[in-house]
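idk why but the lab printer keeps eating my pages so im just putting this in chat instead. protein + guanosine-5'-diphosphate:
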Amino acid sequence: MTKPVVAIVGRPNVGKSTIFNRIVGERVSIVEDIPGVTRDRIYSSADWLTHEFNIIDTGGIELSDEPFLEQIKQQAEIAMEEADVIIFLTNGREGVTAADEYVAKILYKTKKPVVLAVNKIDNPDMREMLYDFYTLGLGEPFPISGSHGLGLGDLLDEVAKNFPDIEEQEYGEEVIKFSLIGRPNVGKSSLINAFLGHERVIVSDIAGTTRDAIDTEYSFDGQDYVMIDTAGMRKKGKVYETTEKYSVLRALKAIERSDVVLVVLNAEEGIQEQDKKIAGYAHEGGKAVIIVMNKWDAIEKNDKTMNEMTKSIREHFQFLDYAPIVFVSAKTKQRVHALFPVINQVSENHAMRVQSSILNEVIEDSVARNPAPTDKGKRLRIYYATQVAIKPPTFVVFVNEPELMHFSYERFLENRIRESFDFEGTPIKIITRART
Ligand code: GDP
Ligand code: GDP
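predcted complex ->
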């Protein structure tokens, strides 16, 4: 299901990140600490009552060299491009400023709904500050207080009222949805063109109808696929398209809709910090992952090069130890089509269900080989394990006391599960619960 997207815009210091964090609340990612991957969040899932949506804090998209007004202009443009509903945030303590008027003028151009919020209305006495904001011509201002968590319910009611009916392009269960993510210039578009055997024609968007609707359907060897568009693939020449945060935003959107994510690296430039961050998002998203080393034609090789590169990839991407690595060249098309059997396999593994009886044999056998940890004289007892979900495969392990389950033991169990079943290419999740 594609969720509606909400973006928060407004000049600096009005409280965008405060409100973003309030709305997002505490969200747990499947892996907490991947070195080099921790980031300040600008895009997250969120919910309000029965509504699920994604939210962008455009203030987090920094456009380093741009002057102040140009920055907020571009942030507003990103909101108009990416969101279904825009929250325009202002500061009630300062009243309407010239910068607010400037943002409002940009937002007049959009057909998307804009909800005006006036922040820092920390107590009811301050409500008279609101009247000033009618002059912005964007309808009724909603008073809120990010610090005190006031007014957010009414604001989100209004936002949800404006959610569009999203007509999701429905694909059959058997269709594999995949995306290519990676830094600019690693060769994502070239790879897609190589898959298709011709240049992909990119239809320009019609204003107001853009829902990242650039999925490309593709069949190979009897299997149907949909390639999901990502950053860098529809170059329209906007300044912000080359910024890191923007490409992250687009990558996160593509990851969300994919079953399988191809993390594309560039052999010519080697592995960079940004590659690790991007790969981290695919992993956190719980998607099947393949590491694709592109531009393999462009480097000097001998019989050791591939092994050395594999070793280096494994060192840099330890959290993706389950991901197969494929060396390709979009330019010469070498091994490009060899990717598809790998995509099929990891997609199957990502959706695999294992039998409880066999799973429990594996767990019992593991405990017999490597006794569960003890703490202060107490030993972890594992009673039973069961698979509760697919995509990614998720297991619940019932124990006497969950606090006794250490990370290293969980890792041991994961490895034993991986040795026993073919989960290549997919993360797996283990949840420890007290048996009640
Ligand atoms: P951003 O630049 O728009 O993302 O703004 P921030 O979220 O970083 O907030 C800017 C400052 O305003 C911070 O010092 C916040 O603590 C403060 N702030 C945010 N919301 C409120 C509020 O509702 N009331 C008051 N008094 N201060 C707030
Ligand atoms: P994107 O930004 O990730 O979509 O990257 P592009 O597909 O636009 O490719 C960036 C540049 O790298 C272009 O000049 C391509 O011609 C070049 N390129 C892409 N794939 C290969 C490859 O396999 N080998 C070589 N030598 N160049 C490539």
